[in-house]
Design brief:
Low-confidence stretches: 1-40
Mean pLDDT: 82
Strand order of the largest sheet: 1-5-4-3-2
CATH class of the largest domain: Alpha Beta
Shape: globular
Radius of gyration: 21 Å
Structural class: alpha+beta
Largest sheet: 5 strands, mixed
Strand content: 25-35%
Number of helices: 5
Amino acid sequence: MRKISWTAFALACAVLTGCASNSTQLAAVTAAAPASRASAQSPAICKAITEPEVAALFDRWNQSLKTGRAEKVVQNYAARSILLPTVSNKLRLSAAEKEDYFVHFLENQPVGSIDMRFVDIGCNTALDAGLYTFSFAKTGTKVSGRYSFTYGWDGQQWLITSHHSSVMPGKD
């Protein structure tokens, strides 16, 4: 019994000491957090999604590529999101930066197809990662790459919160 109470006391001190030393940082982070994020006081309500529905999110993105309109592609991305694109060394955070990338990417009329997919689903988040191939109608070339999309539920729709794409490095 005494061992349990000393352990509980030590844990409580560690937590209280840590909380006290980080209270200013915690207050700043909490104040800066968007209202759409679930607070510790109210439990998050999880939006259900299935693997086929996650796959359909890629299809929606791919269909927006086929329009040839960069602004349509960017509508798939959350306001707070990151694009780490295939054919640019610059990461894209803002909608304007993403649109700039897609204006150039769309010039060769890309169409993507999934070669292998891994899906992981969480509370209001989903991951779709794997291998894909782009066919470029304008040049007739094909490029294989690795990809990852993370999606977040914004209360109305699933949007891309991060997108990473890279060309396959070569044969193993």
